[in-house]
Specification:
By secondary structure, the protein is mainly alpha-helical. The protein has 16 helices and four strands. A two-stranded antiparallel sheet has the order 1-4. β2 and β3 form a beta hairpin. The longest helix is centred in the last third of the chain and has 27 residues.
């Protein structure tokens, strides 16, 4: 606690912005996302938009894994379900982007709950295998045309560049409008996830994460709460998939492979599991590093494109060796060091 500040109520203690320095930082940082489109453009603006979309997806993984402790290996499948659903809602129903995101999220949540049913009997790596099966089934399903086109609409589909938010109203088309859409959706889910961490629901998830047997002895319905975590996280990942389809302008199964799942785990591990700000930090750092590595390879080592494939593996090894709790924990240790410096007590 900073010197001279103290809490006088429970509401102050549990507030999202508690310290004076946090309020100052919040006020100073608030205009930055609104100024970014006027400062950067082209590829960097597109990269930041992608960061917002990936933050939503990793927040969904954060709820399932970070809060409830359920290992899922189907991030790509969840995003694919949201993406293909959104394309069909937009192109065939003409309902607009917001209904497409909601329906994509709801269908993804339903599938996530179905593949979370084995959590009734198994846990840990066994439930991970169940979701890994979903990943392979989804890749096969979306790659198959023919008879399955009546369900998913086709292996490759295009997303219109100009889309109304609801029906044909409030049309968005430019990269700047796409940026603001991704930013507002990301901000909504980040605030909801921050608030979720302060509710009894997240405390129940954490209790199950720490010891599901003790939670059951205390009267908590472990199975129902695990499925609730799957539903919440699945919805968020499905919405992210819908936004990602609009971001790249088309859907193709090659975008939603196990590599996407690995990428999201690296982002979550780097930032720190169990912290919303860790998710935001991890996604931002990895996305910018990834962009820098690819630009470097393209400029100086075009024949060594395979180096890009080992990037995530190297990052995982470094994080686990140096600070397994992620970047936020490392920054906290640095802060504590300078707060006590030059005396270590």
């Amino acid at each position: 606690m900073p010197c001279g500040e103290y809490f006088t109520s429970y509401e102050d203690r549990m507030g999202l912005v508690r310290w004076r320095i946090e309020r100052i930082a919040f006020v100073l940082a608030l205009p930055i996302p609104f100024l970014i489109p006027f400062v950067v453009s082209g590829g960097m603006l597109s990269t930041i938009t992608r960061i917002y979309i990936m933050i939503i997806a990793v927040l969904g993984l954060h709820v399932i894994l970070g809060y409830a402790g359920e290992i899922v290996l189907a991030q790509g499948a969840f995003m694919a379900i949201g993406a293909y659903t959104a394309v069909r809602v937009v192109t065939e129903l003409g309902a607009g982007m917001i209904p497409a995101m909601i329906l994509g999220g709801l269908l993804t949540a339903m599938v996530a709950v179905i593949f979370g049913l084995p959590s009734w009997r198994v846990k840990g790596f066994y439930i991970a295998i169940s979701t890994l099966a979903l990943q392979f089934i989804a890749e096969w399903f979306f790659e198959m045309g023919g008879r399955y086109e009546v369900i998913h609409g086709g292996t490759q589909q295009s997303m219109p560049r100009e889309i109304g938010l609801i029906g044909d109203s409030l049309t968005i088309a430019s990269r700047t409008e796409q940026y603001f859409l991704a930013f507002f959706v990301m901000a909504i889910f980040a605030i909801l996830t921050l608030n979720l961490s302060r509710t009894g629901i997240a405390r129940t998830f954490r209790g199950i994460h720490e010891n599901d047997l003790s939670s059951a002895v205390l009267g908590i319905d472990v199975f129902r709460n695990k499925l609730l975590a799957y539903a919440i996280g699945g919805f968020m990942i499905g919405v992210s998939g819908a936004l990602f389809a609009y971001y790249i302008g088309f859907v193709d199964p090659t975008h939603y492979t196990i590599d996407m799942t690995l990428e999201h785990y690296v982002m979550l591990l780097l930032g720190g599991i169990g912290r919303v700000w860790g998710v935001i930090t991890g996604v931002s750092v990895i996305s910018l590093l990834e962009r820098g590595v690819r630009d470097f390879i393209a400029a100086y080592a075009a024949d060594a494109a395979a180096i890009d494939a080992v990037f995530f593996g190297v990052v995982i090894i470094i994080v686990l060796a140096v600070e397994p709790k992620g970047l936020l924990a490392a920054l906290g240790q640095i802060k504590d060091y300078f707060r006590k410096w030059p005396y270590a007590y």
